[in-house]
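can u do me a favor
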């Protein structure tokens, strides 16, 4: 079995963006990679678990929030190398998006904080460039 740290293959990560009006739900990560940073809720897909089920499970576990119908927002690769150049983490992340249905953000599982952010707050959070791109793309796709 491959370890998540210094893996022999990429891990599949599933993210789920929940939008309440124009606001997007984010979590502060409790563990590496990106520990302490604000991020899209999500985590590793389990063996035998459909991707959309993983998105809903991770969102509920990390935030206590439930969403309506899911759309595919984006797919990104998150690579983190150590000082020697070796790949410390490699996640291929499939991000879904949906409209908020119920629940108030409560951090759980892999998050220390969870809350909705207005679009004008996002630039102040130090988000990964890809997270900003995915949020914008998800917002665009949900409005189609």
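np, heres the sequence
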């Amino acid at each position: 079995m491959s370890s998540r740290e210094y893996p022999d293959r990429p891990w599949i990560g599933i993210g789920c963006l929940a939008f309440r009006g124009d606001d997007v739900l984010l979590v502060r990560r409790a563990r590496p990679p990106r520990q302490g940073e604000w991020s899209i809720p999500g985590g590793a897909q389990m063996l035998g678990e459909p991707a959309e089920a993983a998105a809903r499970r991770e969102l509920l576990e990390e935030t206590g929030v439930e969403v309506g119908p899911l759309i595919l927002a984006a797919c990104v690769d998150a690579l983190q190398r150590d000082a020697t150049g070796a790949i410390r983490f490699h996640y291929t992340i499939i991000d879904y998006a949906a409209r908020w249905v119920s629940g108030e953000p409560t951090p759980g599982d892999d998050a220390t904080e969870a809350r909705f952010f207005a679009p004008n707050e996002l630039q102040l959070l130090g988000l990964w460039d890809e997270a900003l791109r995915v949020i914008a793309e998800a917002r665009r796709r949900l409005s189609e």
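The chain has a mean pLDDT of 94. hope that helps!!
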